[in-house]
Design brief:
Two copies of one chain form a homodimer.
Chain A lengths: L11 H11 L3 E3 L6 E3 L1 H20 L3 E2 L5 E3 H4 L3 H7 L5 E4 L2 E3 L6 E3 L4 E8 L4 H11 L8 E10 L13 E11 L2 H22 L5 E4 L11 E8 L5 E11 L1 H5 L3 E3 L5 E3 L1 E8 L1 H10 L16 E6 L3 H20 L4 E3 L7 H10 L4 E6 H5 L2 E6 L5 E5 L3 H25 L2 E3 L3 H9 L4 E5 L4 H11 L2 E6 L4 E5 L6 E9 L3
Parallel strand pairs in A: 3-9, 17-18, 17-19, 22-23
Antiparallel strand pairs in A: 1-2, 4-8, 5-8, 6-7, 9-10, 10-16, 11-12, 11-24, 12-13, 13-16, 14-15, 19-20, 20-21, 23-26, 24-26, 25-26
């Protein structure tokens, strides 16, 4: 089965697509640009969603649900927002179908035209801020800390499973605050939640930074981002947190009276992460034989395969394995005992490698006699014969080790792919050879940023939060610069 | 605050609407017919969803996600389905907006018209069965047991919060089986899951039955239902499970080869429950002072309010309450300690009554001296002074008692509102006076059912599964009948 995946070296994009399909994560649907998230992919998303949701609630947020549809006029209310979001959208114009009078199926009823078209939400700032107007009167109503889990639609011409699809699942936080300072603090808090989630759960190192004006969210004062590096040396934006200033409060007239009864506009943030993270997770760790999943998010952490010849042998294995799984369960380790006799062990090994199950345990009759079990870790393929005494605790430690090992491996790759560059020639060459992040001086103008993008397809991924100020010259124009920024080609 | 709710006696519909708004459950949005589920309402939905999801997984189902959009032509593929579902739908006709050349905001770009219109899913049978075609080849691929949590849209002209809105949240299970028998077994299994959930979690007694042909799901061979009774004597359909026969398999050409390599169409089921359940839950138990929630689903099970004069007193109360909450936490009881000093205790009492928090605990300085605490249950308002020794266990038992008490109360109401009726005159009179379910003979024809609906607005809610066969005469036509069915006016 693994033979059917294109290797990363041969064609990275094809490898990714093959992997998503073969591992049963997702597939394209009959609707152009929309994907079907298959049960295994969705189980992974549930684990990610549950952990993020837990972290949002720990930081004081509540979930709510706002309408799928946004009146067209709402999108025009915030000037920058409409420029960025009102273009590639699904537009609902009618609310009824009827039988074709010619008897050819059904047609749109021309009499059921909406007075005002509805847009399928590409993001929900406008409908939410229109609502907040009624929820916020006084400083006592603040902060308002709300998150929504939802589907959104942004019409895409060129799509890739998880990475860019017309419909995707995400969460969007929308908070309201009494002061700019509190809103900025919230923006950074949620960036840190994303960074912690990416590093500790996805085992994916990220760089925290601020976007340049050009890459900023439409309607934001500042956009913070976490940027990860994929194995092909391209960057992937993995979560963004926006300080919106008073832009949406002004657009939707949301004022509050402070303790001194003075009226002011509310300060806002929004922040989101999507099913795109699944694409990032796949590309960060996987190899030519299939997925490599971090144990903390793997839908199945351990698979157990019995090897036997007779029913009598099988019974003995079953008995031992029942003991083992009992202990795994007590340690909250998720497992699958695959004793399906329609498939041979070799087929199963390949299948669970493809699916990225972190640990495989194989118990044969000889193993049982020797009181050992064969344990193979997915990330390094290291195989060991381990004593059955206290095996559950050994597996627990092994899962922890895999979690940190794949993080360290990704971090090492990332760290060795940040290159300080001071000449334009080197800049251009490295983008095609070594790839990764190029740390270079930039004169701070949108014109230069766009020119660089035009010449190299590289964009400014972020101005790192921990940047050191340094005098230098812009990599393209030679104009003076006070800091390096990170360039990369990106997903 | 409670003063502002209309009483049930005065205007039941207005009482419901007031309650949903005042308890902070939901509100209407700027988009006609679409609701906003507010944090408290959504917290309740999360509890319901999580429990249902657990029960679906326990019965072997996996979650997946299918596209929001359905190509228009798909709806026509199953003849009965198109009649029932293709009418009041949101239709996407365009995929782009552009700036109005006259400078007046944005307009739909006439050049971005879709070749085939997309329908926002009113239910997903068609897109899912179009997918299953690729997932099912052999009996080894069966059964296929999949569930989806999603938003759906059915354009509604007259809407009511939770009960009937254009967009709502739901789950839809879609399963495929090798035999009719297995599919029917699955249909009944999921009906039982819904019934167990309604009775044991929502504390809402339900009658399990089969729908008449007239009330059947569009495309189903048989529709099973659970029917609950609201306090105004109207029925509310609370979950349906459909045996779809081979209708969708034939419409989408989904065949499998059995063990003997013989090709046959697959057998199907689908089953769903929605945010409508929140409306049912509210109407089943609540009173003129607010919500009454079953402890197993209440977002907050216990609220603790301190009563004090000085900061010194408050400190002593805090210390004791920290002890209590520690013990509540150990018993997995969710609580809120409301020591907000901007609100008086009386305001808080009314507020948590409105929100239906099952138990209120009030600790005053005098109580503390006497080693007691005042405990009030929301359902009966019974107030008691209880010893602080072992208080957490007392609360745990009390929550259990409330759960069964509100179920018993609702069951007694329901049981006394099922009336055997044998004359048309009595039938008509009772619908206006006693209300509830009327158990009456029916001649089994759609004509009679429709005539009764026309005359009385009552519909056949179901043919109960535990029905006893009995010779009789149709309540309207006098024609012979072999069993009674349940009529009621319904939501």
């Amino acid at each position: 089965m693994s033979k059917e995946i294109t290797s990363r070296e041969k064609d990275y994009a094809q490898w990714y697509n093959d992997l998503v399909l073969k591992a049963g994560m997702a597939e394209y649907s009959a609707v152009r640009g929309c994907m079907i998230i298959k049960p295994y992919g969705y189980a992974l998303w549930e684990k990610m969603r549950d952990q993020l949701d837990f972290m949002f609630k720990e930081t004081g947020h509540s979930n709510a649900y706002f309408p799928l549809f946004i009146p067209k006029s709402f999108l025009s209310r915030e000037a920058a927002h409409v420029e960025g979001f009102a273009k590639e959208c699904a537009v609902v114009t009618h609310y009824r179908l009827k039988n074709d009078p010619d008897g050819k199926g059904i047609i749109v009823d021309p009499e059921a035209r909406l007075e005002e078209e509805l847009i399928v939400r590409p993001t929900s700032e406008t409908i939410i801020w229109n609502t907040y107007k009624n929820w916020i009167q006084s400083y006592r109503d603040l902060p308002l800390l709300i998150n929504q889990w939802a589907n959104v639609v942004r019409w895409e011409m060129r799509t890739r499973l998880f990475l860019r699809t017309s419909e995707f699942l995400w969460q969007e936080g929308h908070t309201a605050h009494a002061t700019a300072g509190e809103a900025i603090e919230e923006t950074k808090r949620m960036l840190n939640v994303y960074a912690t989630f990416a590093e500790e759960w996805m085992a994916m190192p990220v760089i925290k930074g601020v976007k340049s004006a050009n890459e900023r969210f439409a309607g934001a004062v500042d956009t913070y981002t976490i940027e990860a590096l994929m194995q092909d040396g391209k960057a992937l934006q993995s979560g963004t947190s926006h300080f919106l200033g008073q832009n949406f409060a002004k657009a939707f007239d949301v004022k509050f009276s402070d303790k001194d009864n003075k009226l002011d506009y509310v300060w806002a943030t929004s922040w989101g992460a999507s099913t795109r993270l699944i694409g990032a997770l796949i590309m960060a760790h996987s190899d030519d034989d299939g997925l490599v999943l971090p144990p903390k998010l793997a839908p199945i952490q351990v698979v157990i395969v019995p090897v036997y010849k007779t029913g009598e042998e099988k019974e003995k294995l079953d008995k031992k394995i029942a003991e083992i799984t009992e202990n795994l369960k007590a340690l909250k380790i998720s497992y699958k005992y695959d004793d399906d006799d329609k498939r041979r062990p070799g087929w199963k090994f390949a299948e669970y490698e493809m699916k990225g199950v972190p640990v495989r345990m194989v118990l044969g009759t000889r193993d049982l006699e020797n009181n050992v079990i064969e344990v193979t870790r997915r990330d390094t393929r290291k195989k060991e014969s381990v004593s059955l005494d206290g095996i559950a605790n050994v597996i627990k430690d092994l899962l922890d080790d895999i979690q940190s090992s794949i993080f360290n491996k990704a971090k090492e790759f990332r760290d060795t792919h940040i290159t300080r560059v001071d000449s334009w020639k080197e800049f251009e060459t490295l983008l095609d050879t070594k790839t990764g992040f190029l740390s270079a001086h930039w004169d701070g103008t949108t014109e230069t940023e766009e020119k660089i993008k035009e010449l190299t397809k590289a964009t400014i991924r972020c101005i790192p939060l921990d940047n050191e100020h340094e005098q230098g010259k812009c990599i393209l124009t030679g104009k003076p610069s006070t800091q390096r920024v990170l360039f990369a080609r990106a997903y």
